[in-house]
Design a protein that fits this description.
Pfam families: Pentapeptide. This is Pentapeptide repeat-containing protein. By secondary structure, the chain is mainly alpha-helical. The chain contains 4 helices and 4 strands. It has a single domain (about 1-175), classed as Pectate Lyase C-like, CATH 2.160.20.80. The protein has a two-stranded parallel sheet with strand order 1-3. The chain has a two-stranded parallel sheet with strand order 2-4.
Length: about 180
Amino acid sequence: MIQLTSLKVTISRCLGGLLILTIALCGTLLGFQPSALAQANSINYTNTNLTNRDFSHQDLERGVFVSAEMRDANLEGANLKNSMLTMANLYGANLKGADLSGALADRVTLYQADLSDAILTEALLTNTMIEKTDITGADFTDALVDRYVAKRLCETASGTNSTTGIATRESLGCDD
């Protein structure tokens, strides 16, 4: 029964990820720029140096942070729903309790970052480096995470997200 549930989660993640990837690739082939994909009232920090910036508890929904340098940025409790973080460098960033639901975080560096209690539901985290990062209580439900990265995250996954009530290990599909 547990293996069947894990299989369903894996298939759901793959299908969701393929849909997001297909939409992103079609947009790229049609020549859309990242800022064109964001709504008019969204912020655009493409190729911007945001090192040590404090964005804690700010509403950054649908923000564009493509190739942004965000080392040691404070994004604690920030609303980053549906944001584009492709190729962003979040080395040492504080994302504790941040909501990254539906975020496009392809090829992002999350080395020594704090993702504790973060919500990453339906986020696209392909080719993303998540190492030496605190994921205690993070919710990865229906997020697309590379299989080998998810396996490595399962080695230290623990806790339950305070907002969604979902256990980190469950959301990653870790074998118990």
